[in-house]
Specification:
Radius of gyration: 39 Å
Low-confidence stretches: 359-367
Structural class: alpha+beta
Number of domains: 3
CATH superfamily of the largest domain: Histidine kinase-like ATPase, C-terminal domain
Largest sheet: 5 strands, mixed
Number of strands: 7
Order of helices and strands: HHHHHEHEEHEEHHEE
CATH architecture of the largest domain: 2-Layer Sandwich
CATH class of the largest domain: Alpha Beta
CATH topology of the largest domain: Heat Shock Protein 90
Mean pLDDT: 79
Oligomer: single chain
Distance between the termini: 55 Å
C-alpha cells in the first residue's frame, strides 16, 4: 500500500501517541493562529477571535482525523474482513498492513502467523484423521477375519474335544496315555478360551445401561474369584461402600472387567498374598480400585498391557485387559494402572455415575 511521506512517518509512532498528537497539535496550532491574527489584523474583538479559532481548529481536526482514518480505520476494517474469511474456512487469508513498522503492523504480523499456524494444524489434523480412518478400516477387516476364523476353528475343535473325551473314557485306568489325554484336554480348553476372547474382542456387544448398585456388581465378581483360590493361600477381600449412589452401567460387563483384574492379581501372586477391591466416590465418578500383593509389572510391560495379544504369561491370551479397557471406555470411563516390582499392582477403574455422555453436536450419536 503506497502511503504519503507524512503517513509513513506516522506509522512508526506508538498508538498511544497517535491519540494525543491530534489534540496537542490542534491546541498548539490554534494558539499560534490566534496570536498571529491578533498581531496581523489588530483585531481586539474577542468574539471574532473565538469564532476564527474554533473554525480553524475544526478544519485542522478534520485533516488529522482523515490521517487517522488511513492509519487505524482502514487496517481495522481489513482485519474484520479477513477474520470473516478465516471464519468461513479460508486459511489462506492474510492482512496487508503487516508490513507497517508500528503496533498495528505488529498486530497484523501476529495475526498472519496465527492463521498460518491454524492452516498447518488443520493439515496435520486432516492427515491424522485420514490415517486413523485407514487404521480403523484395517482393524475392522481384521476383526471380521478373526471372527470368521474363530467360528471355523470352533466347530472342528468341538469335534476334537469330543473324540479326546471318548478316548479318555475307553483307556484302561492304568494306561500311561491318560496323562497325555489330560494334557490334550487342557490345550483344547486353552484354545477354546482364546477363541472366545477373540470373538468378544472382534465383536463386542453394546452395553445395556441401567442404574444399578455397583457394590452388587463387584460382589458377584469377587465371589467368582474366590472360587479360584479355594486351595491357595490367597485372600480376595471386598468391603462394600454404602455411601455410593447407583451407577448407570452394564453389570455383566463391569463384572467381567473386575473379575479379569482380580484373576490377573491372583495369577501375579506366588505363595501367600491378597487381592483387595475398594470402591471410592470422586466428583462425578465411582472409582473401583483393585490392589494385589503380586510380583508387579515391569515398566516396559506396563506401557503395553492394554494392547491386544500382549501377555507376560504363557497361558494368557493377551486379550483380557484389552477387552476390559474397551468395556470401560464404552461406559465413558478409563483405567489407570500403577505397579512396583515385588510390591504389587493397583488398577483404578473410573466409571461416570451418570453413564457416558452423548456428543451434543450429533443428536443421533451412539453411546
Amino acid at each position: 500500500m503506497n502511503l504519503p511521506p507524512i503517513v509513513r512517518w506516522a506509522t512508526g509512532i506508538r498508538w498511544q501517541w497517535k491519540v494525543f498528537i491530534p489534540i496537542i497539535a490542534v491546541m498548539v496550532v490554534s494558539l499560534i493562529g490566534m496570536a498571529a491574527m491578533l498581531r496581523t489584523l489588530e483585531i481586539h474583538d474577542a468574539q471574532w477571535i473565538l469564532v476564527a479559532v474554533i473554525a480553524f481548529a475544526i478544519l485542522l481536526s478534520f485533516v488529522l482525523l482523515s490521517v487517522l482514518l488511513v492509519l487505524v480505520e482502514q487496517p481495522l476494517q481489513e482485519l474484520m474482513d479477513t477474520i470473516s474469511r478465516v471464519r468461513t474456512g479460508d486459511l489462506t487469508a492474510h492482512v496487508s498492513f503487516a508490513k507497517r513498522e508500528d503496533d498495528i503492523g505488529a498486530l497484523g504480523r501476529q495475526f498472519n502467523e496465527m492463521v498460518q499456524t491454524l492452516q498447518h494444524n488443520r493439515v496435520e489434523i486432516e492427515d491424522l484423521h485420514r490415517r486413523e480412518m485407514l487404521r480403523a478400516e484395517h482393524l475392522a477387516s481384521l476383526g471380521e477375519l478373526a471372527a470368521g476364523l474363530a467360528h471355523e476353528i470352533r466347530n472342528p475343535l468341538a469335534g476334537i474335544a469330543g473324540v479326546v473325551d471318548v478316548m479318555s473314557k475307553e483307556l484302561p485306568a492304568d494306561s500311561p496315555s491318560r496323562a497325555v489325554v489330560g494334557d490334550v484336554q487342557n490345550e483344547v480348553l486353552h484354545i477354546k478360551n482364546i477363541l472366545n476372547d477373540l470373538l468378544s474382542y472382534s465383536r463386542p456387544r453394546p452395553p445395556n445401561f441401567h442404574p444399578a448398585d455397583i457394590n452388587t456388581t463387584i460382589e458377584q465378581a469377587v465371589q467368582f474369584a474366590r472360587q479360584q483360590v479355594l486351595t491357595k493361600p490367597i485372600q480376595v477381600l471386598f468391603e462394600p461402600n454404602p455411601t455410593l449412589p447407583n451407577v448407570l452401567h452394564d453389570p455383566a460387563l463391569i463384572q467381567q472387567v473386575i473379575l479379569n483384574l482380580l484373576l490377573n492379581g491372583i495369577q501375579a501372586i506366588t505363595g501367600e498374598g491378597k487381592v483387595e477391591v475398594r470402591s471410592l466416590l470422586e466428583p462425578g465418578f465411582v472409582v473401583l480400585q483393585v490392589n494385589d500383593t503380586g510380583r508387579g509389572i515391569s515398566p516396559d510391560a506396563l506401557a503395553k498391557i492394554f494392547k491386544p495379544f500382549f501377555t507376560t504369561r504363557s497361558e494368557g491370551t493377551g486379550l483380557g485387559l484389552s477387552l476390559a479397557n474397551g468395556i470401560v471406555q464404552s461406559h465413558g470411563g478409563r483405567i489407570d494402572v500403577t505397579s512396583a516390582a515385588q510390591k504389587g499392582t493397583q488398577f483404578r477403574v473410573w466409571l461416570p455415575i451418570a453413564g457416558p455422555v452423548k456428543d451434543k453436536r450429533d443428536p443421533a450419536a451412539k453411546w
